[in-house]
Amino acid sequence: MKIAVVALGKIGLPLAVQFADADPSHEVIGVDVNQQVVDLVNEGVEPFPGEAHLAEKLAELVPAGRLRATTDYGEAIPGADAVVLVVPLFVDEESGAPDFGWMDDATRSLAQHLTPDSRTLISYETTLPVGTTRQRWKPMIEEISGLREGSDFHLVFSPERVLTGRVFADLRRYPKLVGGLSEEGTARAVEFYEAVLSFDDREDLPRPNGVWDMGTAEAAEMAKLAETTYRDVNIGLANQFARFADGVGIDVHRVIEACNSQPYSHIHQPGIAVGGHCIPVYPRLYLSTDDQASVVRTAREANAAMPAYAVERAASVLGSLEGLRVVVLGASYRGKVKETAFSGVFATVDALRERGAQVLVHDPMYTEQELAGFGWEPYVLGEEVDVAIVQADHPEYAELSTEDLPGLRLLLDGRRITDPARFAGVPRLTIGGGESSTA
Which of 75, 113, 182, 439 has a CA between 20 and 30 Å from the CA of residue 312? Predict the structure, then answer.
């Protein structure tokens, strides 16, 4: 097959590599608007280090001529058997409305180069609001290309369900969900993904692991939104429990551990923030099409309020944060990931500044220059500081002690990663840990 992958980001590039690796006869072309990314891929070099097995696979597949990249849709799309799109969809932070700008541009570009003789399968893998594939992409592609969905091309939705850093393992681990606009289109998609993916045996699933036909594009769209929204709602519940536990002096982590010892309880962990491209974003996409989803809306609001709650707890212990040097430990949205998408660092810094604190930011994955580029004053371990707030669970923070944070008067560990024994004599707060403790 000739396969085009549109957008060679942290999901798209591993997908292109997976497709090329599945069969030496496949011709895989990646399309990206970033010339630097295209050049690095064509050199067989990973443009964003950190994805397991990506470097060695690129070094093997590119020189062998099984994978190449381009900025030209006219090179990649004509005659393609399948086109897979993993273009970012953005969400307005204030209104929560989806911003289709980049996806619209990519869709228009591919539509201009579709050829009717190949009956191309077009699969969107970017998470979408329910109804987008049928109501937005189908008419757009038909109008621009002059072709007809169902006869000249087939359009399906098949959500990516992987995490960066472990994409290849997740592709094998989780069923591939597929939903089309017609039975024939869905069947084409099932056939395609069965040809380019392989799956682990899993006895815990209700049916064999593999490509699962969801019946319609809308069902596949909702499945991705539902599985991620569930996590946000669950974390919102855990955070509600944590805030109550703090008020009455209970360690909520012991409570959750006890609850989850029973097989019907699956309470997630509370924390200072929910960040990243997925969990804080996809509930907003769901809310954009379901204005009655009060449970989802309440959970999203509760999770968004956690950074301010953490700062409030710190202020309640010290009386005021006015003029104090406060370091936020972790700019990333989660440990071991160099990414600030919807990170809790932004709201935490804002809440501290509103209380008059002198705010500094530290992250082992970012240089001082990079941190300064966000408008933050970088912090160097060993400098005097009054308060430390752990925002990201980088493994390096598990090794911190009072020697790294001289002058420390309060530690608020929003991820419960620090060792209390290393902070003897310093008040230490956690989210849902009840009263402050001094080891």
Answer: 439
